[in-house]
Amino acid sequence: MQTPSLSGASRWLTRYYSARAAFSLAWVAAAFALGRGHAAVAAVLLCLYPAWDAVANYVDAVRSGGLRRNPTQALNAVVSLVAAAMALLAVQRGPGPVLGLFGAWAIVAGLLQLATAVRRWKTQSAQWASVLSGAQSALAGGFFIKQAFAPVAPPIVTIAGYAAIGALYFLVSAIWLALKARRGGAGEPVGA
Q: Which one, out of 7, 103, 116, 167, has a CA that is 20 to 30 A from the CA of 174?
């Protein structure tokens, strides 16, 4: 697969970050509106979030030069797919195991996102938001693991807050790239 031009890569990343933000915001809305009171809906949402992350990372890796050129995203897709499958088992055991699983997943996925952003830093704008997002994800994962062992594990809205912050980072990246394109600097190799 041929590597897209920088302006083409920037257009792709703008659409990609926009789609990630939109999905995360919809997921947060569903978690608050439906996930609190319905265990079955919460279970579906808890499996859906890492499954979406797997698909998004896979598609971005393929669109950004292929899986071999994007090993952190390829690995992130696999890790997220495994987390989604494990969430099916964890939801049957209660909120504590789910939160612990999400914590472990958030740490690994966050570090892989951070590595992807650092790799893209020289060729794409708006990677500072992805760096912050990856670091925040890894930190949040540690807090999730700690909360998983609390006497009463927090509900799905705890994860919804994490997803909302992730949506904000993706939205900032999409807006940053769109504004840069409007000013004529869509493909400038700038890290900020």
A: 103
Which residue's structure tokens are 């996102």?
Answer: 113
Letter for the amino acid at 190?
V
Token pair 């009463």 in the structure block, residue: 152
CB-CB contact of 141 with 106 (8 Å): yes
Copy the structure tokens of residue 100.
Answer: 């612990």
52-78, pLDDT tens digit by residue?
A: 999 999 999 999 999 999 999 999 999
Mean pLDDT score across all residues of the chain: 87
- Residues 155-182: b if buried by 16+ CB within 10 A, e if exposed: ebbbbbebbbbbbebbbbbbbbbbebbe
d(CA 111, CA 108): 5
Chain centroid to CA 165: how far? 10
141-178 pLDDT tens trace: 999 999 988 888 677 788 899 999 999 999 999 999 88
